Automatic annotation (TrEMBL):
Protein name listed in UniProt: Protein YjdM
Membrane spanning residue stretches: none
Pfam families tied to this protein: YjdM, Zn_Ribbon_YjdM
Signal peptide feature range: none
InterPro entries named in the record: YjdM (IPR004624), YjdM_C (IPR013988), YjdM_N (IPR013987)
Amino acid sequence: MQTLPHCPQCNSEYTYEDHNMFVCPECAHEWDMNAASEDDDGLIVKDANGNLLSDGDSVTVIKDLKVKGSSSMLKIGTKVKNIRLVEGDHNIDCKIDGFGPMKLKSEFVKKS
């Protein structure tokens, strides 16, 4: 019997295979079964205070931010949970309650 790896996000033992991916039913995390580890990509992202950020961290917005295409603003002190780091200018991918999915720049958040 083949043993599947535990989830790297929540360490759940109930992972399953879906095509070329492993999936965790508890936290919905998906990762490539051919990749050794997601941390091997060398992506280093720091917040406004210089703290190292990683996937799954919670951050707080430190400045009022205009939301493109909307008349509302993202207020200072807004908490963002379970971030995902991506490459590019806007290097944080997240969902914010009341706004939905969006990308943020790490220079406008601090680790909480």
